[in-house]
Amino acid sequence: MKRLLHVTPSGWTGFAFAAFCILILPEISGRYWLSVFTSAGCFALAIAGVAFMYARLGMVSLTQVGLMGVGGWVALRLNYAFGWPFEVNMVLAALATMVCGWVLALPALRMRGLYLALVTLMAAGGLEIIFATFQFPNGGTGFWGVKTGSADPFLRPWIATSPEAYLRYVIICAVLGFVFIELHRRLQPGRAWALIRRSEAAAMAAGVNVTLYKTWAFGIAGLLGGAAGALLAGSLGLLDDGTFRASESVMIFALAVVGGARYWQGAVVAAVLYKVLPALLNIWGVDADLAFVIFGVGLLHAVITAPDGIAGQLIDAVRGLTAKRRKEASDA
Amino acid sequence: MLEIRNITVRFGGVVALNDVSASFAQPVSGIIGPNGAGKTTLMNVLSGFVTSTGGSVTRDGQELLKLAPHRRAHWGLRRSFQKEEIADDLTVFENVLVQIDHGRSPASQKTDEVSRMLALVGMADRADKPGARLNSFERRLTDVAKCLVGQPRVVMFDEPAGGLSIDETRQLGALIRQIHAETGAQVLVIDHDVDLIREVCAETLVLDFGKRIAFGPTDAVLNDASVKAAYLGTEEV
To answer: Which residues on chain B are in Cβ contact (under 8 Å) with A192?
Structure first.
C-alpha cells in the first residue's frame, strides 16, 4: 500500500502544476483563453489515454479523437433526452465509450504495430463518416436528436457553471484520469502490460491473460477518451463533426510521441501544442496552419533525438542538473 | 512423472517433431540435440505456443495440451526463454511478482514468496533495481526466480547458460539442482553445454531432425554411438 500511494517528485510536480491551473490560471485568463485552456484540459485527458497505450503496451491507437466524439455524442444525447446531471451523463458516456474501446479491441487483439494502427485508423474513419452524416445531438427529437436552428441549452455541472469554474472542473477530472493511469501502472495490470510489451510469449508463460489485459487497455483508453469528449461537450455546449476527424486522431498520437508518451508531462505538452499553440498563433495574427509545420519539426526532433519526447528530455535535464548540484555540494 | 506421447509438429512441409515420446521421471532431465533438432519446438509445444498434431502431455493426471498457455502457467508450468525476458521498466521484484499476480493468495504472502526466491537466487539485495539496469547474469537469475515462485510443478529452461561465463554457468547449475528440493518441481533443461547437462541432469532425451534418437540416463546417452554421430557426424567411407 505504501508503495502504491508513494508520490514521486514527478507526482508532486504534477500536483503543484494542477494547483496552479486550478487556483491561478482561471483568475488570470480572459474568456478566450479560458475556452482554449478548457479544451486543452479535455484533450490532455484523451491524449493521456492514447499515450498510455503506446507507452505501456506499445500499441498504436489512431481512434482516440473518434472515441472522444463517441463520448461527446452520448453525453449530448443523454443531456437532451433525460436532463440528467452532467456527472451522470459523463460517467455513462465514459462507460459507453469504454465498451466501444472493447469492441474496437476485438479485431485488433491479433494485430500489432502497423496493422493495428491501420485497423484503428479505419475505425476512426468510420466514426468520422457517422459523425458527418448524423451530426451531434442538439436538442432535436428521435434517436439522433438533431434539429435545425440553434441548439437547446446543455447542463453543465451545477458546481461549475461559469467558465472559470468549468476550467477548474476539467483540470480536476484530468488529474483524476492521470492518477487512474498511474495507479494502474503500479498495480497488477501495469506489471502485466510491461511484460506484454516486452514479449507476449513471455507474458503468457508468466500466466498473464494477454487478451484480457490488451482489452482492458483499450477499455481504459476509451473510458478516458469518452470522459474527455463529454467534458468537451460541456465546455462548448454543442459539438461539431469537424472536431473529430480521423486526421485529428493521427495528430494527437503524433503529438503524444512528441510530448513524451511515458510521462504525464508529455500529455500536457501535447495538449498545449495541439490547442494552445494554434490559439497563440491566431492572437499573433499568424496563420494557425504554421502549427502543423511546428508539429512536424517536433515529430522529427522526437524521432531523431528524443525517443521519450520533450517531457523525457526535460526530465533528463532536471535530473542532470540536480545530480550536478549534489556533486558540487558534496565536493564543497 | 511428465509423460510426453506421440508429439508431432509440422511447419508446412517441414516435420519439426516426428512422433516424439518420453517419460521424464527424474527431478532434473535434459533435452539435447544439434541445431534444428526440435528442442525448442518441443518446449513450445509444452508451453502452448506451438500446436502439435495429436499426442499428449500429462503430469499429475492433467492433460497440458488442452490448456491455454496462460492457464498452463496457472497450473504450475514455468519456462525461461533463450533470451531473458525481463521487463525493463519493472524492478527485479516486480518482474518476479508478475508470475504470481494471478494467484488468489494474500498480497503479503506473495511478496514474502518473491523475497524468499530472490534470496535463493542471490538477487535479494537488487530487488529494487530496474530491469533495464541488470547485466545478463542478473537477468538470468531474475528469470530463474520467476520460475520458482507460485508452487511450480514443471520448470523448463531453454539454453539457460547461453552467453554466461564458466563460473556463472557453474553457479546456475548449482541453482538448477536445488529447484526440486526447494519447490518439488520437475525440471527440464535444454542446452548445448553438454558439461552442464551431464552435471545437472539425471536423464536426457536426445533429438535429431525432430526424432528421438536416444533417451535414458545421461551418461549412457552421451556415450551412445548414435548421439555422437548426431553431434559429430560420421566418417564417410
So the answer is: 98, 101
